[in-house]
Amino acid sequence: VDQSPNSYFAVLSRGIYWMRLAQLSRGADYINKTQERQKLGMRYYQETALVDLHKAAALSPKAFLPYSYIMSISKTSGDNALYISARSAGLKLFPESFILRSEILFGLQPKWGGTKDALDLFIEETTRHSATNPELRSLLGYKALIAADTMKRGDRDAAITLYDEAIGFGGNEFMYLSRGKNYYYKRDYKR
Length: 191
Known about the structure:
The protein has helices at 8-26, 36-59, 65-77, 80-93, 98-107, 116-129, 142-151, 156-167, 173-185. The protein is built from 9 helices and no strands.
Protein backbone atom coordinates (compact mmCIF):
# COMPACT_ATOMS: atom_id res chain seq x y z
CA VAL A 1 0.00 0.00 0.00
CA ASP A 2 2.95 2.31 0.68
CA GLN A 3 4.12 1.85 -2.92
CA SER A 4 0.63 2.05 -4.46
CA PRO A 5 -1.62 3.99 -2.07
CA ASN A 6 -4.29 4.42 -4.74
CA SER A 7 -4.40 0.78 -5.80
CA TYR A 8 -7.83 -0.72 -5.19
CA PHE A 9 -6.39 -4.22 -4.85
CA ALA A 10 -3.63 -3.18 -2.43
CA VAL A 11 -5.99 -1.25 -0.16
CA LEU A 12 -8.67 -3.96 -0.30
CA SER A 13 -6.07 -6.63 0.50
CA ARG A 14 -4.83 -4.71 3.49
CA GLY A 15 -8.42 -4.23 4.69
CA ILE A 16 -8.98 -7.99 4.46
CA TYR A 17 -5.72 -8.52 6.34
CA TRP A 18 -6.90 -6.23 9.19
CA MET A 19 -10.22 -8.05 9.21
CA ARG A 20 -8.46 -11.39 9.61
CA LEU A 21 -6.42 -9.98 12.50
CA ALA A 22 -9.70 -8.92 14.12
CA GLN A 23 -10.97 -12.51 13.84
CA LEU A 24 -7.75 -13.90 15.29
CA SER A 25 -7.81 -11.38 18.13
CA ARG A 26 -11.38 -12.30 19.05
CA GLY A 27 -10.75 -16.04 19.01
CA ALA A 28 -13.23 -18.85 18.44
CA ASP A 29 -15.06 -18.91 21.79
CA TYR A 30 -18.59 -17.68 22.24
CA ILE A 31 -18.64 -13.94 22.88
CA ASN A 32 -19.61 -14.42 26.55
CA LYS A 33 -16.41 -16.45 27.02
CA THR A 34 -14.21 -13.97 25.16
CA GLN A 35 -11.91 -11.83 27.30
CA GLU A 36 -12.25 -8.06 27.22
CA ARG A 37 -8.72 -7.58 25.83
CA GLN A 38 -9.64 -9.87 22.91
CA LYS A 39 -12.77 -7.81 22.22
CA LEU A 40 -10.74 -4.58 22.33
CA GLY A 41 -8.25 -6.04 19.86
CA MET A 42 -11.07 -7.18 17.59
CA ARG A 43 -12.68 -3.72 17.62
CA TYR A 44 -9.35 -2.01 16.92
CA TYR A 45 -8.62 -4.21 13.92
CA GLN A 46 -12.20 -3.93 12.65
CA GLU A 47 -12.04 -0.13 12.76
CA THR A 48 -8.67 -0.20 10.99
CA ALA A 49 -10.08 -2.60 8.36
CA LEU A 50 -13.12 -0.39 7.78
CA VAL A 51 -10.88 2.58 6.89
CA ASP A 52 -9.22 0.52 4.13
CA LEU A 53 -12.46 -1.10 2.96
CA HIS A 54 -14.19 2.28 2.59
CA LYS A 55 -11.14 3.63 0.77
CA ALA A 56 -11.15 0.60 -1.55
CA ALA A 57 -14.83 1.22 -2.33
CA ALA A 58 -14.03 4.87 -3.14
CA LEU A 59 -11.05 3.90 -5.33
CA SER A 60 -13.16 1.56 -7.43
CA PRO A 61 -16.76 2.81 -7.41
CA LYS A 62 -18.01 -0.19 -9.43
CA ALA A 63 -16.48 -2.79 -7.10
CA PHE A 64 -18.88 -4.61 -4.79
CA LEU A 65 -16.43 -6.74 -2.80
CA PRO A 66 -15.58 -4.12 -0.15
CA TYR A 67 -19.26 -4.01 0.77
CA SER A 68 -19.32 -7.74 1.52
CA TYR A 69 -16.48 -7.32 4.00
CA ILE A 70 -18.05 -4.20 5.50
CA MET A 71 -21.28 -6.16 6.05
CA SER A 72 -19.35 -8.92 7.76
CA ILE A 73 -17.66 -6.50 10.15
CA SER A 74 -20.87 -4.59 10.85
CA LYS A 75 -22.67 -7.83 11.81
CA THR A 76 -20.10 -8.71 14.44
CA SER A 77 -19.81 -5.14 15.69
CA GLY A 78 -23.58 -4.68 15.88
CA ASP A 79 -23.59 -1.59 13.64
CA ASN A 80 -26.92 -2.10 11.88
CA ALA A 81 -26.84 1.27 10.08
CA LEU A 82 -23.46 0.42 8.53
CA TYR A 83 -24.75 -3.03 7.58
CA ILE A 84 -27.82 -1.59 5.82
CA SER A 85 -25.73 1.04 4.05
CA ALA A 86 -23.17 -1.51 2.79
CA ARG A 87 -25.90 -3.95 1.79
CA SER A 88 -27.76 -1.30 -0.22
CA ALA A 89 -24.60 0.01 -1.91
CA GLY A 90 -23.38 -3.47 -2.83
CA LEU A 91 -26.68 -4.70 -4.22
CA LYS A 92 -27.14 -1.48 -6.17
CA LEU A 93 -23.85 -2.20 -7.95
CA PHE A 94 -24.32 -5.92 -8.51
CA PRO A 95 -27.75 -7.27 -7.53
CA GLU A 96 -26.99 -10.74 -8.88
CA SER A 97 -23.78 -11.21 -6.87
CA PHE A 98 -23.46 -14.61 -5.21
CA ILE A 99 -20.91 -13.26 -2.72
CA LEU A 100 -23.11 -10.38 -1.55
CA ARG A 101 -26.28 -12.41 -1.38
CA SER A 102 -24.54 -15.22 0.49
CA GLU A 103 -23.24 -12.73 3.07
CA ILE A 104 -26.70 -11.21 3.43
CA LEU A 105 -28.41 -14.57 3.85
CA PHE A 106 -25.85 -15.55 6.47
CA GLY A 107 -26.73 -12.35 8.32
CA LEU A 108 -30.45 -13.10 8.20
CA GLN A 109 -30.05 -16.06 10.55
CA PRO A 110 -31.97 -15.70 13.81
CA LYS A 111 -28.71 -15.82 15.78
CA TRP A 112 -27.67 -12.59 14.02
CA GLY A 113 -31.04 -10.90 14.59
CA GLY A 114 -32.69 -11.98 11.35
CA THR A 115 -36.33 -13.00 11.10
CA LYS A 116 -38.19 -15.66 9.14
CA ASP A 117 -40.09 -12.98 7.22
CA ALA A 118 -36.91 -11.11 6.26
CA LEU A 119 -35.30 -14.39 5.19
CA ASP A 120 -38.33 -15.39 3.09
CA LEU A 121 -38.47 -11.97 1.45
CA PHE A 122 -34.78 -11.99 0.58
CA ILE A 123 -34.92 -15.53 -0.78
CA GLU A 124 -37.88 -14.50 -2.95
CA GLU A 125 -35.86 -11.54 -4.24
CA THR A 126 -32.84 -13.78 -4.85
CA THR A 127 -35.04 -16.14 -6.89
CA ARG A 128 -35.73 -13.30 -9.34
CA HIS A 129 -32.00 -12.80 -9.90
CA SER A 130 -31.19 -16.50 -10.31
CA ALA A 131 -32.19 -16.34 -13.97
CA THR A 132 -29.31 -13.90 -14.55
CA ASN A 133 -26.88 -15.76 -12.29
CA PRO A 134 -27.71 -19.49 -12.00
CA GLU A 135 -25.18 -19.82 -9.14
CA LEU A 136 -27.72 -18.01 -6.94
CA ARG A 137 -29.97 -21.06 -7.13
CA SER A 138 -27.88 -22.75 -4.42
CA LEU A 139 -28.69 -19.87 -2.07
CA LEU A 140 -32.37 -20.77 -2.26
CA GLY A 141 -31.50 -23.65 0.06
CA TYR A 142 -30.37 -21.31 2.85
CA LYS A 143 -33.70 -21.56 4.64
CA ALA A 144 -33.19 -25.33 5.03
CA LEU A 145 -29.52 -24.77 5.92
CA ILE A 146 -30.43 -22.36 8.72
CA ALA A 147 -33.08 -24.77 10.00
CA ALA A 148 -30.52 -27.60 9.96
CA ASP A 149 -27.97 -25.51 11.84
CA THR A 150 -30.60 -24.69 14.46
CA MET A 151 -31.68 -28.33 14.78
CA LYS A 152 -28.28 -30.07 14.66
CA ARG A 153 -27.68 -30.01 18.41
CA GLY A 154 -30.96 -31.73 19.20
CA ASP A 155 -31.59 -34.10 16.31
CA ARG A 156 -28.64 -34.72 14.01
CA ASP A 157 -30.59 -37.13 11.76
CA ALA A 158 -33.29 -34.53 11.10
CA ALA A 159 -30.55 -31.96 10.51
CA ILE A 160 -29.00 -34.20 7.84
CA THR A 161 -32.35 -34.34 6.05
CA LEU A 162 -32.43 -30.52 6.04
CA TYR A 163 -28.80 -30.28 4.89
CA ASP A 164 -29.69 -32.63 2.01
CA GLU A 165 -32.66 -30.41 1.18
CA ALA A 166 -30.40 -27.34 1.14
CA ILE A 167 -27.87 -29.09 -1.08
CA GLY A 168 -30.71 -30.15 -3.38
CA PHE A 169 -30.91 -26.52 -4.56
CA GLY A 170 -27.43 -26.84 -6.00
CA GLY A 171 -25.37 -26.69 -2.85
CA ASN A 172 -22.24 -24.74 -2.14
CA GLU A 173 -19.11 -25.48 -0.15
CA PHE A 174 -20.57 -24.12 3.10
CA MET A 175 -23.58 -26.44 2.86
CA TYR A 176 -21.41 -29.49 2.20
CA LEU A 177 -19.03 -28.52 5.02
CA SER A 178 -21.94 -28.06 7.45
CA ARG A 179 -23.38 -31.45 6.57
CA GLY A 180 -19.94 -33.05 6.85
CA LYS A 181 -19.40 -31.56 10.30
CA ASN A 182 -22.78 -32.88 11.36
CA TYR A 183 -21.80 -36.39 10.25
CA TYR A 184 -18.51 -35.99 12.09
CA TYR A 185 -20.16 -34.98 15.37
CA LYS A 186 -22.63 -37.80 14.88
CA ARG A 187 -19.55 -40.06 14.59
CA ASP A 188 -20.68 -41.28 11.20
CA TYR A 189 -17.23 -41.33 9.56
CA LYS A 190 -18.15 -43.45 6.54
CA ARG A 191 -19.73 -40.59 4.64
